[in-house]
Design brief:
Layout: E1 3-4, E2 17-30, E3 33-40, E4 43-50, H1 56-64, E5 70-79, E6 87-98, H2 111-116, H3 118-121, H4 125-147, E7 151-153, E8 158-159, E9 171-174, E10 177-181, H5 186-196, E11 198-206, E12 219-228, H6 232-250, H7 254-259, H8 264-268, E13 275-278, H9 279-288, H10 301-308, E14 315-321, E15 331-332, E16 335-346, E17 351-358, H11 363-377, H12 383-391, E18 400-406, H13 407-414
Parallel strand pairs: 1-2, 4-6, 7-11, 13-14
Antiparallel strand pairs: 2-3, 2-5, 3-4, 5-6, 8-10, 9-10, 11-12, 12-18, 14-16, 15-16, 16-17, 17-18
The structure holds 4-amino-1,4-dioxobutan-2-aminium adenosine-5'-monophosphate and magnesium ion.
Length: about 425
Amino acid sequence: MAKLVHAAESAKYVGKEVTLRGWVYRKRESGGIVFIVLRDSTGLVQIAVRKDAVDEASWKAAEDTSIESSIEVTGVLKQDQRSPTGYEITAKKFANVHIAEPFPITEYQSPELLLDKRHLWLRSTRMTTILKLRSYVFRYAREFLDKHGFYEVTPPLITVAGGETGADLFEVNYFGEKAYLTESSQLYVEVLIFALEKVYSFAPSYRAEKSRTTKHLAEYWHLEPEMAYYDINKSMKLQERLVSYIANKVAEHEDLLKVLNVDPAGLKAIKPPFKRVTYEQAIEIINSKGGNLKWGDDFGVPEEKMLTENEEKPIFVTDWPRELKAFYARPNPKDPRTVLSDDMQAPHGHGEIIGGTERVWNYEELMQRIREFEQAKGIKFNLENYDWWIDLRRYGSVPHSGFGMGMERLIKWLLNLDHIRDAIPFPRVINRLKP
Ligand code: 4AD
Ligand code: MG
């Protein structure tokens, strides 16, 4: 039996008989030879099936095969400059595992069709490359936190307590009771620092916001570290090291980045420290570029672009107005107008990749913030749903900070993608629930 190998191992097996399994990427026939380019998870390799060199069944299979059919080939590998992959397998045996129907995706297709046929489009070189890099980004994020003494923890995703504004939640019928898909696991990771001190959750978050932008998903992957005894400055130092670590490690994948036209040098240059501007300074920068913001306004897509278009590294925006951040954000003791908070903005207008705060850890102060929140929003806070979280401020409370990083936002920036939906295999956006 010939050895079962992958396309990317071609160089290692020149002169040897090998077997490969894959899918038909290209096919053409010329003068008694069928040329097939086989695609597998590692890359491409050309196969030549010659009528006079194979048995009848193999020849028929080669003639019958079609784009995206699943195939198996056995033959001798050789180097060949004429092959588009640099290597060619002279087939001894060729078989279809399954013959594909005419493939619905051809060369030029609308973005809408590619989304409808997402389950097939994910096989493309572009999507395969993004999927690999996404997997690496997830790996490096975990690797960094694991190396720095964090425990990974798993929060529930069905909850009664929303973390943020409470307005953007997907409702779930929980055995007749009203529940929600979580929009942040923060409240649960806060619980777990009292057991494990430094923790992170890596899970989806759900936002029912109706934003139709290139940066919003209804379901996204959210990395949420939470650290006992960290103030906001220590948390920001951790954030910039985490992001730099991931960017620098991704930069090592030069072959993959080349497919997406991303220059690894730019990613290698991402190093701490990142620039820090206060919210007030950010407003000045934005207004000097034609923006029209006043104290208390949030940033939209155009403002984020004005702020970061000339940056090469992410920047922090700190000291946000207290009314713009959630009830758990700790007021700034030096300036009661603001809370101890940071947003990390990616360069070139890719948007906010991290939101972080130092948390209110004093019971009285938390109740005060909640009353303030109720007044500002004109709603009644359902304390019953949060009593467990409020309890943390009653039993051995400690100062602490944490942050949330949107993985698809991070990937969109690192890989310079036009739209966040390509950063995730099955995007959930306002008008799409399938596939
Ligand atoms: O700024 P956000 O809303 O902060 C929180 O949820 C905090 N509770 C996190 C924490 O402190 N543990 O969200 C954090 C990040 C944003 O900076 C952004 O990167 C991402 O989550 N994000 C989204 N990503 C994709 N689609 C959306 N609709 C997103 N909304 C937020
Ligand atoms: Mg935010």
